[in-house]
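ok so for the tutorial part 2 we go from a plain amino acid sequence to predicted structure tokens. step 1 is just haveing the sequence, like this:
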Amino acid sequence: MDWISALLLLTGSLVVLLMLGLPVAVTFFGVNIIGAIVFLNGEIGLIQMTRNVVTAITNYNLAPIPLFILMGEILLHTGMAFKAIDAIERLITKVPGRMAVVTVAAGTVFSALSGSSIANTAMLGRSLMPIMLQRGYHPTLSMGPIMATGAIAMLIPPSALAVLVGSLAGMSISRLLLAGIIPALLMSLLFFAYIVVRAKRRPQDAPPDDPVERTRAERWKPFLVYVVPLSGILIVVVGTLILGIATPTESAGLGVIASVVAAAGYRSLSWQAIKTTLAETAKTSTMILFIIMASTTFSQILAFSGATSGVVTLVTGFGADPLVVLIMMMVVLLILGCFVDQVSMVMITVPLFIPIAHAVGLDPIWLGVIYLITMEMGFLTPPFGLLLFVMKGIAPPEIRMSTVYKAAVPFLAIEMFVLVLILIFPQIALWMPSLIR
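step 2 — the prediction. this is what the tokens look like for a chain of 437 residues:
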């Protein structure tokens, strides 16, 4: 079988099974069984597939994923994140669109502590959206900042998705984790600017509120008590990576320890919180690791069938400029983001994109950051962006799905602008990774 037929067989089977609504892991295992029978000599191929699964799941580089997830779940289920949000809300006063600005600030802080876009969006939606709607904020300005800052969690350490991309693509995980920090902070600043400008131009969208009069001590004390110490957790994770004194797994372990110590210090570490935290961590980690097992074998079958080398030869044969190749990859990712979830995007594209990137000489970390931003946009891209449905589930019943779509559009435009900036100025993403000793 020629490589084009092999590629059509494998990717076509994948698309059909996904469209039937099967879970991602089940879909890829099904395609792997087909590929093992056709390309790996039947029974021998199935035995080899089992060995590949064992090898994939025992990879030490994957250890940060459950640790980062555990770290975020600790902060969420002990209530520390909600206390931090309240502290930030007290500190920000006399700003146009104040509650929307508070949402972006709180969401950015929690993104740096949780690593989960869905958890971030759900938490902000439940805690801040009712307040904004009650105070007369336009629904699009209530939901947009929540979804946008929720998506930032996949860029800022601790990002489990960044670890997943780095592991599957063979990138330096520590460098990829650091590379997302400046783009994420740049997005947050642009979100601030958009909210302030919109609130000034359309004050009816963000009615000025009357924050409770508090003394300076009442405003700053919660920030110093709840936000500053929790920010120390991020400093532990990022600082040990930059100084080169810890691997991503070790820094994730230190982050978990710091989170437990913080929860104990705030007397929030109840047995119920521990039980819920461990259960949620196990669920999420198991799902991701099952997907990784399936993805690794899928990559090997693609390579063995000749599909990977065929695509690489085709692309390099055109003599395409690396930037053109990168833009083509982005377009594919943006289209996929409209229809499939982010983990599926990684699994479908990494086996083909990474060999092409190596062949045309693309910087892997640069490509990794663009991957993450494009997938972040996919979270918000109609009609099937995952965070759009999370937001609809949290929003009051009278808010239509079309309103959720409209809320996401301005923030999608900002993310696209940042993506273009990184294409033009790669050092925006590559400067922090260069600091690693």
